[in-house]
Protein backbone atom coordinates (compact mmCIF):
# COMPACT_ATOMS: atom_id res chain seq x y z
CA UNK A 1 0.00 0.00 0.00
CA UNK A 2 2.76 2.47 0.90
CA UNK A 3 4.69 2.17 -2.43
CA UNK A 4 1.45 2.74 -4.36
CA UNK A 5 0.55 5.74 -2.21
CA UNK A 6 3.98 7.32 -2.65
CA UNK A 7 3.78 6.75 -6.41
CA UNK A 8 0.39 8.46 -6.66
CA UNK A 9 1.64 11.26 -4.41
CA UNK A 10 4.42 11.96 -6.90
CA UNK A 11 1.97 11.85 -9.81
CA UNK A 12 -0.48 14.25 -8.13
CA UNK A 13 2.17 16.71 -6.92
CA UNK A 14 4.92 17.45 -9.47
CA UNK A 15 8.38 17.73 -7.99
CA UNK A 16 7.60 15.50 -5.01
CA UNK A 17 10.40 13.20 -3.86
CA UNK A 18 9.64 9.90 -2.08
CA UNK A 19 11.77 6.89 -1.31
CA UNK A 20 11.32 3.53 0.42
CA UNK A 21 14.14 1.25 1.50
CA UNK A 22 13.71 -2.34 2.67
CA UNK A 23 16.04 -4.94 4.13
CA UNK A 24 17.00 -8.31 2.66
CA UNK A 25 13.68 -9.82 3.80
CA UNK A 26 11.59 -7.05 2.17
CA UNK A 27 10.78 -5.56 5.55
CA UNK A 28 10.30 -1.81 5.72
CA UNK A 29 13.46 -0.03 6.90
CA UNK A 30 13.21 3.67 5.99
CA UNK A 31 10.82 6.03 4.24
CA UNK A 32 11.17 9.62 2.98
CA UNK A 33 8.63 12.17 1.73
CA UNK A 34 9.08 15.78 0.54
CA UNK A 35 6.29 17.53 -1.36
CA UNK A 36 7.14 19.44 -4.52
CA UNK A 37 5.49 22.66 -3.29
CA UNK A 38 7.67 22.66 -0.18
CA UNK A 39 10.85 21.93 -2.13
CA UNK A 40 10.22 24.73 -4.62
CA UNK A 41 9.44 27.27 -1.93
CA UNK A 42 12.46 26.41 0.18
CA UNK A 43 14.93 26.59 -2.71
CA UNK A 44 13.69 29.99 -3.90
CA UNK A 45 12.20 32.24 -1.19
CA UNK A 46 12.76 30.60 2.22
CA UNK A 47 15.69 31.27 4.56
CA UNK A 48 18.19 28.43 4.44
CA UNK A 49 17.89 27.44 8.10
CA UNK A 50 16.45 23.98 8.83
CA UNK A 51 15.48 22.53 12.20
CA UNK A 52 15.49 18.73 12.43
CA UNK A 53 14.02 16.55 15.16
CA UNK A 54 12.41 13.16 15.79
CA UNK A 55 9.26 11.98 17.54
CA UNK A 56 8.25 8.46 18.51
CA UNK A 57 5.43 6.61 16.77
CA UNK A 58 2.94 4.70 18.92
CA UNK A 59 1.68 2.03 16.51
CA UNK A 60 2.13 -1.68 17.19
CA UNK A 61 5.42 -1.73 15.30
CA UNK A 62 6.67 1.48 16.97
CA UNK A 63 9.30 3.53 15.08
CA UNK A 64 10.14 7.24 14.82
CA UNK A 65 9.08 10.13 12.61
CA UNK A 66 11.93 12.41 11.44
CA UNK A 67 11.05 15.99 10.47
CA UNK A 68 12.86 18.88 8.75
CA UNK A 69 11.12 22.26 8.97
CA UNK A 70 11.92 25.93 8.29
CA UNK A 71 10.28 29.34 8.75
CA UNK A 72 8.66 31.55 6.13
CA UNK A 73 8.91 35.34 6.02
CA UNK A 74 6.00 35.65 8.44
CA UNK A 75 7.74 33.41 11.03
CA UNK A 76 5.32 30.54 10.37
CA UNK A 77 6.31 26.86 10.23
CA UNK A 78 7.27 25.77 6.71
CA UNK A 79 7.66 21.95 6.55
CA UNK A 80 10.28 20.64 4.15
CA UNK A 81 10.62 16.85 4.53
CA UNK A 82 9.51 13.89 6.64
CA UNK A 83 11.11 10.52 7.26
CA UNK A 84 10.16 7.20 8.85
CA UNK A 85 12.61 4.90 10.60
CA UNK A 86 12.62 2.00 13.05
CA UNK A 87 14.53 3.97 15.70
CA UNK A 88 16.48 7.18 16.26
CA UNK A 89 20.04 6.03 15.65
CA UNK A 90 23.06 6.95 13.57
CA UNK A 91 21.96 4.82 10.60
CA UNK A 92 18.48 6.39 10.55
CA UNK A 93 19.74 9.98 10.71
CA UNK A 94 22.42 9.33 8.09
CA UNK A 95 19.88 7.87 5.68
CA UNK A 96 17.40 10.71 6.29
CA UNK A 97 20.02 13.45 5.84
CA UNK A 98 21.20 11.76 2.64
CA UNK A 99 17.68 11.98 1.18
CA UNK A 100 17.27 15.52 2.51
CA UNK A 101 20.37 16.67 0.67
CA UNK A 102 18.88 15.54 -2.66
CA UNK A 103 16.02 18.08 -2.38
CA UNK A 104 18.23 21.05 -1.39
CA UNK A 105 19.53 23.04 -4.33
CA UNK A 106 22.46 24.70 -2.54
CA UNK A 107 23.54 22.47 0.40
CA UNK A 108 26.62 24.60 1.09
CA UNK A 109 24.39 27.53 2.09
CA UNK A 110 22.30 25.58 4.58
CA UNK A 111 22.32 25.92 8.36
CA UNK A 112 20.89 22.92 10.26
CA UNK A 113 19.81 23.22 13.89
CA UNK A 114 19.23 20.15 16.09
CA UNK A 115 19.68 18.71 19.54
CA UNK A 116 22.90 16.97 20.59
CA UNK A 117 21.96 13.46 19.45
CA UNK A 118 25.09 11.54 18.48
CA UNK A 119 23.42 10.17 15.34
CA UNK A 120 22.78 13.68 14.00
CA UNK A 121 26.40 14.73 14.52
CA UNK A 122 27.64 11.61 12.73
CA UNK A 123 25.17 12.11 9.88
CA UNK A 124 26.14 15.76 9.47
CA UNK A 125 29.82 14.90 9.17
CA UNK A 126 29.09 12.23 6.56
CA UNK A 127 26.37 13.90 4.47
CA UNK A 128 26.64 17.67 5.07
CA UNK A 129 30.37 18.39 5.51
CA UNK A 130 30.01 21.71 3.66
CA UNK A 131 26.95 22.92 5.62
CA UNK A 132 26.84 24.59 9.03
CA UNK A 133 25.47 22.81 12.08
CA UNK A 134 24.07 24.54 15.15
CA UNK A 135 22.84 23.21 18.48
CA UNK A 136 19.44 24.02 19.96
CA UNK A 137 19.96 26.54 22.76
CA UNK A 138 17.16 25.07 24.86
CA UNK A 139 18.37 21.47 24.72
CA UNK A 140 21.88 22.61 25.54
CA UNK A 141 20.60 24.56 28.54
CA UNK A 142 18.91 21.42 29.86
CA UNK A 143 22.25 19.61 29.71
CA UNK A 144 23.96 22.49 31.49
CA UNK A 145 21.42 22.39 34.32
CA UNK A 146 22.73 18.99 35.34
CA UNK A 147 26.22 20.46 35.71
CA UNK A 148 25.28 23.62 37.58
CA UNK A 149 22.50 21.95 39.61
CA UNK A 150 19.65 24.15 38.39
CA UNK A 151 21.37 27.48 39.09
CA UNK A 152 19.27 30.12 37.36
CA UNK A 153 22.01 32.76 37.41
CA UNK A 154 24.33 30.48 35.42
CA UNK A 155 21.66 29.63 32.83
CA UNK A 156 20.82 33.32 32.39
CA UNK A 157 24.46 34.10 31.66
CA UNK A 158 24.51 31.29 29.10
CA UNK A 159 21.40 32.61 27.33
CA UNK A 160 22.73 36.16 27.32
CA UNK A 161 25.94 35.00 25.68
CA UNK A 162 24.00 32.90 23.16
CA UNK A 163 21.82 35.75 21.91
CA UNK A 164 24.51 38.45 21.73
CA UNK A 165 25.13 40.18 18.39
CA UNK A 166 28.61 41.60 19.02
CA UNK A 167 31.79 39.63 19.64
CA UNK A 168 32.91 41.90 22.47
CA UNK A 169 29.54 41.48 24.22
CA UNK A 170 29.76 37.71 23.83
CA UNK A 171 33.28 37.66 25.26
CA UNK A 172 32.17 39.76 28.23
CA UNK A 173 29.29 37.40 29.07
CA UNK A 174 31.48 34.32 28.66
CA UNK A 175 34.12 35.82 30.96
CA UNK A 176 31.47 36.41 33.61
CA UNK A 177 30.17 32.87 33.11
CA UNK A 178 33.70 31.51 33.50
CA UNK A 179 34.11 33.34 36.79
CA UNK A 180 30.69 32.16 38.00
CA UNK A 181 30.81 28.46 37.06
CA UNK A 182 33.96 27.06 35.45
CA UNK A 183 32.49 23.61 34.65
CA UNK A 184 29.66 25.09 32.58
CA UNK A 185 32.15 27.30 30.76
CA UNK A 186 34.37 24.30 29.96
CA UNK A 187 31.36 22.34 28.70
CA UNK A 188 30.42 25.16 26.31
CA UNK A 189 33.97 25.39 25.01
CA UNK A 190 33.93 21.63 24.41
CA UNK A 191 30.65 21.90 22.50
CA UNK A 192 32.06 24.74 20.40
CA UNK A 193 31.04 28.39 20.53
CA UNK A 194 30.13 28.28 16.83
CA UNK A 195 27.49 25.64 17.65
CA UNK A 196 25.37 27.75 20.02
CA UNK A 197 26.46 31.38 19.65
CA UNK A 198 24.57 33.62 17.24
CA UNK A 199 27.53 35.92 16.59
CA UNK A 200 30.05 33.10 15.96
CA UNK A 201 27.77 30.99 13.76
CA UNK A 202 29.29 30.37 10.30
CA UNK A 203 25.85 30.91 8.71
CA UNK A 204 23.07 33.30 9.59
CA UNK A 205 20.63 31.71 12.04
CA UNK A 206 18.24 34.69 12.07
CA UNK A 207 15.91 34.08 15.04
CA UNK A 208 16.10 30.26 14.87
CA UNK A 209 18.25 29.68 17.95
CA UNK A 210 16.18 26.68 19.10
CA UNK A 211 14.32 23.79 17.46
CA UNK A 212 10.94 24.94 18.75
CA UNK A 213 9.40 24.85 15.27
CA UNK A 214 10.31 21.15 14.94
CA UNK A 215 8.77 20.49 18.35
CA UNK A 216 5.66 22.39 17.23
CA UNK A 217 5.18 20.27 14.12
CA UNK A 218 5.58 17.18 16.29
CA UNK A 219 2.76 18.40 18.53
CA UNK A 220 0.55 18.86 15.45
CA UNK A 221 1.07 15.18 14.64
CA UNK A 222 0.59 13.98 18.20
CA UNK A 223 -2.90 12.57 17.65
CA UNK A 224 -2.01 10.38 14.65
CA UNK A 225 1.13 8.66 15.95
CA UNK A 226 -0.81 5.42 16.52
CA UNK A 227 -1.79 5.14 12.84
CA UNK A 228 0.06 3.18 10.12
CA UNK A 229 2.71 4.96 8.07
CA UNK A 230 0.45 5.34 5.03
CA UNK A 231 -2.24 7.04 7.11
CA UNK A 232 0.34 9.34 8.71
CA UNK A 233 1.68 10.33 5.29
CA UNK A 234 -1.84 11.11 4.05
CA UNK A 235 -2.57 13.15 7.18
CA UNK A 236 0.60 15.20 6.62
CA UNK A 237 -0.33 15.80 2.99
CA UNK A 238 -3.84 16.92 3.96
CA UNK A 239 -2.44 19.18 6.68
CA UNK A 240 -0.05 20.88 4.26
CA UNK A 241 -2.83 21.25 1.71
CA UNK A 242 -4.87 23.26 4.22
CA UNK A 243 -1.87 25.25 5.44
CA UNK A 244 -0.78 26.25 1.94
CA UNK A 245 -4.31 27.26 0.95
CA UNK A 246 -4.96 29.38 4.02
CA UNK A 247 -1.56 31.06 4.00
CA UNK A 248 -1.74 31.74 0.26
CA UNK A 249 -4.94 33.71 0.86
CA UNK A 250 -3.49 35.52 3.90
CA UNK A 251 -0.37 36.51 1.94
CA UNK A 252 -2.45 37.98 -0.88
CA UNK A 253 -4.56 39.97 1.57
CA UNK A 254 -1.57 41.58 3.33
CA UNK A 255 -1.78 45.31 2.51
CA UNK A 256 1.82 46.11 3.45
CA UNK A 257 5.11 45.63 1.64
CA UNK A 258 6.52 43.59 4.52
CA UNK A 259 4.88 40.65 6.27
CA UNK A 260 2.90 41.12 9.47
CA UNK A 261 5.71 39.83 11.68
CA UNK A 262 8.35 41.99 9.98
CA UNK A 263 6.08 45.03 10.25
CA UNK A 264 5.64 44.42 13.97
CA UNK A 265 9.42 44.21 14.30
CA UNK A 266 9.86 47.54 12.50
CA UNK A 267 7.15 49.32 14.51
CA UNK A 268 8.85 48.42 17.79
CA UNK A 269 12.01 50.22 16.64
CA UNK A 270 10.52 53.38 15.20
CA UNK A 271 10.43 55.32 18.48
CA UNK A 272 14.01 54.42 19.56
CA UNK A 273 15.28 55.34 16.08
CA UNK A 274 13.80 58.83 16.38
CA UNK A 275 16.03 59.55 19.39
CA UNK A 276 19.27 58.80 17.54
CA UNK A 277 21.78 61.45 16.52
CA UNK A 278 23.30 61.08 13.05
CA UNK A 279 26.75 62.28 11.99
CA UNK A 280 27.67 61.69 8.31
CA UNK A 281 31.12 60.27 7.60
CA UNK A 282 31.19 59.98 3.81
CA UNK A 283 28.84 59.19 0.93
CA UNK A 284 27.35 56.06 2.47
CA UNK A 285 28.67 55.77 6.04
CA UNK A 286 27.19 57.38 9.14
CA UNK A 287 27.93 57.51 12.82
CA UNK A 288 24.74 57.02 14.83
CA UNK A 289 24.44 57.67 18.57
CA UNK A 290 21.44 56.04 20.26
CA UNK A 291 22.16 57.51 23.75
CA UNK A 292 23.51 54.13 24.95
CA UNK A 293 25.88 53.00 22.19
CA UNK A 294 27.47 54.28 19.04
CA UNK A 295 27.24 52.44 15.74
CA UNK A 296 28.57 52.88 12.23
CA UNK A 297 25.98 52.37 9.48
CA UNK A 298 27.14 51.50 5.96
CA UNK A 299 24.25 51.76 3.51
CA UNK A 300 26.30 50.49 0.59
CA UNK A 301 27.32 47.29 2.39
CA UNK A 302 23.96 47.05 4.19
CA UNK A 303 25.77 46.68 7.47
CA UNK A 304 25.80 48.16 10.97
CA UNK A 305 28.41 47.73 13.68
CA UNK A 306 25.67 46.67 16.13
CA UNK A 307 25.39 43.51 13.95
CA UNK A 308 21.60 43.23 14.26
CA UNK A 309 21.05 44.36 10.68
CA UNK A 310 23.75 41.99 9.46
CA UNK A 311 22.58 38.82 11.24
CA UNK A 312 18.78 39.23 11.14
CA UNK A 313 18.51 41.09 7.81
CA UNK A 314 15.87 43.31 9.40
CA UNK A 315 16.63 46.98 9.90
CA UNK A 316 18.16 47.99 13.23
CA UNK A 317 17.38 51.32 14.93
CA UNK A 318 20.59 52.90 13.59
CA UNK A 319 19.84 52.08 9.94
CA UNK A 320 16.23 53.17 10.45
CA UNK A 321 17.42 56.50 11.82
CA UNK A 322 19.53 57.12 8.70
CA UNK A 323 16.70 56.02 6.42
CA UNK A 324 14.15 58.16 8.27
CA UNK A 325 16.30 61.27 8.06
CA UNK A 326 17.43 60.55 4.51
CA UNK A 327 20.48 61.77 2.64
CA UNK A 328 21.46 62.16 -0.98
CA UNK A 329 24.60 63.32 -2.78
CA UNK A 330 24.57 66.53 -4.78
CA UNK A 331 27.54 67.31 -7.04
CA UNK A 332 28.17 70.95 -7.95
CA UNK A 333 30.58 71.52 -10.83
CA UNK A 334 32.88 74.55 -10.76
CA UNK A 335 35.66 74.97 -13.32
CA UNK A 336 37.09 78.20 -11.91
CA UNK A 337 37.16 78.16 -8.13
CA UNK A 338 39.84 75.61 -7.20
CA UNK A 339 39.65 76.43 -3.50
CA UNK A 340 36.37 74.53 -3.10
CA UNK A 341 37.23 71.25 -4.77
CA UNK A 342 37.89 67.91 -3.13
CA UNK A 343 38.24 65.80 -6.26
CA UNK A 344 40.07 66.40 -9.54
CA UNK A 345 39.24 64.44 -12.66
CA UNK A 346 39.95 65.54 -16.26
CA UNK A 347 40.62 69.12 -15.13
CA UNK A 348 37.08 69.47 -13.80
CA UNK A 349 36.92 70.76 -10.26
CA UNK A 350 33.89 70.08 -8.08
CA UNK A 351 32.93 69.64 -4.45
CA UNK A 352 30.41 67.34 -2.80
CA UNK A 353 28.06 68.13 0.09
CA UNK A 354 25.11 66.48 1.80
CA UNK A 355 21.54 67.68 1.61
CA UNK A 356 18.62 66.28 3.55
CA UNK A 357 15.62 64.95 1.71
CA UNK A 358 12.26 63.68 2.89
CA UNK A 359 13.62 60.21 3.62
CA UNK A 360 14.03 56.77 2.11
CA UNK A 361 11.65 53.83 2.71
CA UNK A 362 12.60 51.67 5.67
CA UNK A 363 11.23 48.65 3.80
CA UNK A 364 14.23 48.85 1.48
CA UNK A 365 16.51 48.04 4.43
CA UNK A 366 14.90 44.63 5.02
CA UNK A 367 15.68 41.41 3.20
CA UNK A 368 13.39 40.12 0.45
CA UNK A 369 12.71 37.08 2.64
CA UNK A 370 10.34 39.26 4.70
CA UNK A 371 8.35 40.78 1.84
CA UNK A 372 4.78 39.81 1.01
CA UNK A 373 5.80 39.11 -2.58
CA UNK A 374 8.20 36.37 -1.54
CA UNK A 375 5.69 35.09 0.98
CA UNK A 376 3.11 34.71 -1.79
CA UNK A 377 5.65 32.86 -3.92
CA UNK A 378 6.40 30.49 -1.03
CA UNK A 379 2.80 29.25 -1.12
CA UNK A 380 2.18 29.70 -4.86
CA UNK A 381 2.22 25.98 -5.62
CA UNK A 382 -0.76 23.99 -4.40
CA UNK A 383 -0.63 20.70 -2.53
CA UNK A 384 -2.97 18.43 -4.47
CA UNK A 385 -4.95 15.52 -2.97
CA UNK A 386 -4.29 11.90 -3.82
CA UNK A 387 -7.14 10.23 -5.77
CA UNK A 388 -9.15 7.39 -4.29
CA UNK A 389 -7.47 3.96 -4.45
CA UNK A 390 -10.14 2.66 -6.86
CA UNK A 391 -8.96 5.12 -9.53
CA UNK A 392 -5.20 4.57 -9.16
CA UNK A 393 -3.27 3.78 -12.34
CA UNK A 394 -0.05 2.27 -11.04
CA UNK A 395 2.89 0.65 -12.78
CA UNK A 396 3.20 -3.09 -12.36
CA UNK A 397 6.64 -2.74 -10.78
CA UNK A 398 5.20 -0.49 -8.10
CA UNK A 399 2.09 -2.59 -7.52
CA UNK A 400 4.04 -5.84 -7.26
CA UNK A 401 6.63 -4.50 -4.85
CA UNK A 402 6.42 -6.26 -1.50
CA UNK A 403 7.03 -4.13 1.58
CA UNK A 404 6.46 -5.95 4.86
CA UNK A 405 6.10 -4.10 8.15
CA UNK A 406 9.15 -3.96 10.36
CA UNK A 407 9.37 -6.33 13.29
CA UNK A 408 7.36 -5.46 16.34
CA UNK A 409 9.56 -4.36 19.22
CA UNK A 410 7.81 -4.88 22.51
CA UNK A 411 8.92 -2.41 25.14
CA UNK A 412 9.31 -3.61 28.73
CA UNK A 413 6.76 -2.45 31.25
CA UNK A 414 3.53 -0.55 30.86
CA UNK A 415 3.27 1.71 27.77
CA UNK A 416 3.81 5.35 28.69
CA UNK A 417 1.31 7.99 27.64
CA UNK A 418 3.03 11.17 28.83
CA UNK A 419 6.33 12.57 27.58
CA UNK A 420 9.58 11.95 29.40
CA UNK A 421 11.01 15.22 30.78
CA UNK A 422 14.50 16.19 29.72
CA UNK A 423 17.44 15.94 32.08
CA UNK A 424 17.41 18.93 34.40
CA UNK A 425 13.93 20.02 33.36
CA UNK A 426 11.92 21.51 36.17
CA UNK A 427 8.67 19.72 36.88
CA UNK A 428 5.50 21.60 37.58
CA UNK A 429 4.56 21.57 41.25
CA UNK A 430 1.06 20.99 42.58
CA UNK A 431 -0.89 24.03 43.73
CA UNK A 432 -3.17 23.66 46.74
CA UNK A 433 -6.69 24.92 46.10
CA UNK A 434 -7.13 25.61 49.82
CA UNK A 435 -4.12 27.79 50.73
CA UNK A 436 -2.70 28.54 47.26
CA UNK A 437 0.78 27.26 48.11
CA UNK A 438 2.78 24.84 45.96
CA UNK A 439 4.05 21.40 46.90
CA UNK A 440 0.84 19.73 48.10
CA UNK A 441 -2.86 19.45 47.31
CA UNK A 442 -6.00 20.25 49.29
CA UNK A 443 -6.17 16.78 50.79
CA UNK A 444 -2.70 17.08 52.39
CA UNK A 445 -2.96 20.76 53.26
CA UNK A 446 -1.79 21.45 56.85
CA UNK A 447 -4.07 24.45 57.14
CA UNK A 448 -7.78 24.11 57.97
CA UNK A 449 -10.12 24.06 55.03
CA UNK A 450 -11.58 27.44 54.13
CA UNK A 451 -14.67 25.91 52.51
CA UNK A 452 -17.38 23.92 54.31
CA UNK A 453 -17.12 20.16 54.16
CA UNK A 454 -19.43 19.03 51.40
CA UNK A 455 -18.43 15.38 51.48
CA UNK A 456 -21.12 12.80 52.15
CA UNK A 457 -21.27 11.30 55.70
CA UNK A 458 -19.99 7.79 56.11
CA UNK A 459 -22.57 5.05 55.83
CA UNK A 460 -23.75 3.40 59.04
CA UNK A 461 -22.43 -0.11 59.60
CA UNK A 462 -24.81 -2.92 58.82
CA UNK A 463 -26.68 -4.66 61.68
CA UNK A 464 -27.43 -8.36 61.57
CA UNK A 465 -31.13 -9.18 61.96
CA UNK A 466 -30.31 -12.50 63.73
CA UNK A 467 -27.67 -11.63 66.36
CA UNK A 468 -28.19 -7.83 66.31
CA UNK A 469 -24.44 -7.24 65.93
CA UNK A 470 -22.82 -4.78 63.49
CA UNK A 471 -20.45 -5.61 60.67
CA UNK A 472 -22.39 -8.29 58.82
CA UNK A 473 -25.84 -9.27 57.68
CA UNK A 474 -27.96 -12.33 58.43
CA UNK A 475 -26.58 -14.28 55.47
CA UNK A 476 -23.01 -14.07 56.90
CA UNK A 477 -24.04 -14.37 60.56
CA UNK A 478 -21.91 -16.93 62.47
CA UNK A 479 -24.81 -17.64 64.88
CA UNK A 480 -27.21 -18.51 62.11
CA UNK A 481 -28.84 -21.98 62.63
CA UNK A 482 -28.14 -24.59 59.96
CA UNK A 483 -30.63 -24.63 57.13
CA UNK A 484 -32.69 -27.71 56.31
CA UNK A 485 -31.86 -29.65 53.21
CA UNK A 486 -35.55 -29.95 52.34
CA UNK A 487 -37.23 -27.40 50.18
CA UNK A 488 -40.46 -25.63 51.07
CA UNK A 489 -42.66 -28.17 49.33
CA UNK A 490 -41.08 -31.15 51.09
CA UNK A 491 -41.25 -29.48 54.52
CA UNK A 492 -44.96 -28.79 54.05
CA UNK A 493 -45.62 -32.40 53.04
CA UNK A 494 -43.83 -33.72 56.14
CA UNK A 495 -45.80 -31.43 58.43
CA UNK A 496 -49.11 -32.57 56.96
CA UNK A 497 -48.08 -36.22 57.24
CA UNK A 498 -47.62 -36.05 61.02
CA UNK A 499 -50.76 -34.08 61.69
CA UNK A 500 -53.59 -36.05 63.31
CA UNK A 501 -56.64 -36.37 61.08
CA UNK A 502 -59.61 -34.30 62.04
CA UNK A 503 -62.71 -36.49 62.37
CA UNK A 504 -65.96 -34.98 61.32
CA UNK A 505 -69.03 -35.57 63.39
Automatic annotation (TrEMBL):
Keyword field contains Ribonucleoprotein: no
- Outline the extent of the CCHC-type domain: 432-447
Q: Where is the composition biased (Basic residues)?
A: 408-419
Compositional bias ranges of the Low complexity kind = 447-456
Residues annotated as coiled-coil are none
Stretches for region Disordered: 408-491
Biased-composition ranges, Basic and acidic residues, are: 467-482
Q: Does the keyword Zinc-finger apply?
A: yes
Q: Tell me the domain of life.
A: Eukaryota
Protein name from the UniProt record: SWIM-type domain-containing protein
